[in-house]
Amino acid sequence: MEPDLPESRSGAEKLTAALQRAADSLFDFEIAVGTEEIALTLAVPCPNPALLPRLSEQACCLTIAVASWLFGPKAEPERIEFAYPPPAHAGSCAEFFCCPVRFDAQATSVHFHKTALTLPSAGRVRRSRIDQPRTDIAPEVEQVLRDRIWEPTTQAAVAKRLMMSERTLHRRLAEGGQRFGEIRDRVRLERANVLLRTSSLSISAIAGEVGFTDAREFRRAYLRWTGSTPSAARAASPWRPEGPEDHLPPTGAH
């Protein structure tokens, strides 16, 4: 009896989860379950086009190895497609992967028959290292933000610094119950409080130091974070440094 689509999807999702743990931040995987086959599309972040074939082939090797590990030797691909022109070694790829290989495809993907990923796995993945919790990525994100705190850093920019895709970073943070915006706000508030309490920089200058291009935007953000204004926080400091914007003349004064 052949498996139905839900069973095929369940096996594909199990493989995808194992691959994401095994590959960590190197590759991203998406599944598409059809009536006769299961396709795993691989996203390979690679700023250097010359390295794309090598990284893509490594990702496909990993996919096949993990599939065989989880579902047994029958979990062999029916074909592999690569999203780049044939490399110099294209002639040996079919022999190496033991299946037809096509180049110049729309995306790099590994295709399995719908029955290939529904074989018993005997729970091996649960006992494997790849199923263990990974290190929380939030401290690394915080460090990147602190290093360039004066810049209006985006999630995409941080992901690039950490050598992963933005989607992978979002997923890793979500696994730890974190959001990028919340981490950035926390780092900005931490630095803003230090400057408000220990420096005589103006509010506008402090806004720039923590990544805001508009002092009014910084004031609104600080009020949202703390329920108080930057000026009030500075006034409450034991040292109470006075910045040049803290004593502006009243409107209409000459």
From TrEMBL:
SMART domains: HTH_ARAC
Keywords: DNA-binding, Transcription, Transcription regulation
GO cellular component: cytosol
Keyword Secreted in record: no
Entries under SUPFAM superfamilies matching the protein: Homeodomain-like
Organism field: Nocardia panacis
Span list, region Disordered: 231-254
Domain spans labelled HTH araC/xylS-type: 139-236
A Pfam family: HTH_18
UniProt name for this protein: AraC family transcriptional regulator
GO molecular function: DNA-binding transcription factor activity; transcription cis-regulatory region binding
Low complexity: bias regions: 231-240
